[in-house]
């Protein structure tokens, strides 16, 4: 009886594995929905469109970018988490979704167990941005005011709990002073108000913020990474401009429902790595200030774990509670 059961179990597992392998081989057979859980115009939207356009060409089926802003990305992320794991609903994710979710205590899904990484698609320092006509000409000007006038500076973010919010929280924790947080449904609308002077400063993603610096509408005061960015060699890091030890970057993922079979995850990982290695995307990434290192689903999962530990410490120290 036991031998028969084990034989039956083995046959069932073999059938499941063969079915998953066949699914991966035949994928895709129809259009794919790529959820960008923030408003158009921000880094997530830009990356989703870069990947979506090139996967569409590679697959011969449309990859449709679907912007679903709300709850700092968690509205769209929950939609993906609850979708079938068949590869036809994917998401471009962020720190806020995958690593800083401890700031929300009432989420109706579990990012750590209901979503899985396909790969980390890029990492970049943020840039400290102010309007072109701002009184802050240098980061030292801004830092002095932030220390002297706690609670009087308004800063924008792409949403409460977003990577833009978290790197700013890390800065406030480092200097021991607070600013007023003005959250938006993505970097796109936040940048519009920053340009017009409705808010004072934003620690935005380089990819969405720098075009406005190049157009003369914004000024960059510092970068948030551990070292100067080679694309902005004259711009200091926050650490060297007066906040020793400070370092925070934004990173982005391609993620899928946790129920997606490993064979299909591996197939997607290789297909997207092919996209990211193409000369045109390498050039686009360089222009955006985005860095990419090839990584496997297992390496991405390990990265999620270490980043979750880091940002949970920040959330607890800053007592960030968003619901």
Structure notes:
With 323 residues, the protein is an alpha/beta fold. The chain folds into two domains: 2-123 and 250-318, D-Maltodextrin-Binding Protein, domain 2 (3-Layer(aba) Sandwich), CATH 3.40.190.150; 125-249, Periplasmic binding protein-like II (D-Maltodextrin-Binding Protein, domain 2, 3-Layer(aba) Sandwich), CATH 3.40.190. Helices cover 46% and strands 19% of the residues. It has twelve helices and nine strands. Strands 1, 2, 3, 4, 5, 6, 7, 8 and 9 form a nine-stranded mixed beta sheet that branches. Helix 2 (43-59) links the parallel strand 1 (32-36) and strand 2. Helix 1 packs parallel to helix 10 (262-277), helix 2 (43-59) crosses helix 10 and helix 7 (163-175) packs across helix 12. The longest helix has 25 residues, at 2-26. The radius of gyration is 21 Å and the shape is globular. The chain starts with a helix and ends in a 5-residue tail after the last helix. The mean pLDDT is 92.
Descriptors:
single chain, 323 residues, alpha/beta, D-Maltodextrin-Binding Protein, domain 2, globular
Write the layout of secondary structure elements.
Blueprint: H1 2-26, E1 32-36, H2 43-59, E2 63-67, H3 74-81, E3 89-94, H4 95-98, H5 111-114, E4 115-131, H6 139-148, E5 154-157, H7 163-175, E6 180-183, H8 187-196, E7 201-205, H9 206-214, E8 218-223, E9 249-257, H10 262-277, H11 279-288, H12 297-318
Parallel strand pairs: 1-2, 1-3, 5-6, 5-7
Antiparallel strand pairs: 3-9, 4-7, 4-8, 4-9
């Amino acid at each position: 009886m036991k031998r028969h059961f084990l034989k039956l179990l083995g046959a069932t597992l073999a059938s499941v594995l063969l079915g998953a392998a066949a699914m991966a081989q035949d994928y895709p057979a129809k259009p794919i929905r790529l959820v960008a859980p923030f408003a158009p115009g921000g880094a997530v939207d830009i990356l989703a469109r870069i990947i979506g356009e090139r996967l569409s060409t590679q697959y011969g089926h449309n990859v449709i970018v679907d912007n679903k802003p709300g709850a700092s990305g968690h509205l769209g992320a929950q939609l993906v988490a609850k979708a079938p794991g068949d590869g036809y609903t994917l998401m471009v994710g962020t720190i806020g979704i995958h690593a800083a979710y401890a700031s929300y205590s009432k989420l109706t899904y579990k990012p750590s167990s209901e979503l899985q990484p396909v790969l980390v698609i890029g990492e970049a320092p943020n840039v400290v941005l102010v309007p072109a006509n701002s009184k802050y000409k240098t980061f030292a000007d801004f830092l002095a005011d932030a220390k002297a006038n706690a609670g009087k500076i308004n800063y924008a973010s792409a949403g409460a709990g977003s990577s833009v919010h978290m790197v700013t929280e890390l800065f406030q924790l480092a200097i021991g002073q607070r600013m007023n947080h003005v959250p938006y449904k993505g970097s796109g609308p936040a940048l519009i108000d920053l340009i017009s002077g409705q808010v004072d400063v934003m620690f935005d993603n380089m990819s969405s913020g720098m075009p406005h610096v190049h157009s003369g509408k914004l000024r960059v005061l510092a970068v948030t990474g551990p070292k100067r960015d080679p694309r902005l060699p004259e711009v200091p890091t926050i650490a060297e401009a007066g906040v020793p030890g400070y370092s925070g970057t934004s990173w982005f993922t391609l993620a899928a429902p946790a129920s997606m079979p490993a064979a299909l995850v591996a197939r997607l990982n290789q297909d997207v790595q092919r996209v990211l290695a193409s000369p045109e995307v390498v050039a686009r990434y360089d222009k955006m200030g985005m860095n990419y290192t090839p990584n496997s689903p297992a390496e991405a999962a390990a990265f999620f774990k270490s980043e979750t530990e880091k940002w949970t410490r920040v959330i607890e120290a800053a007592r960030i509670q968003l619901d």
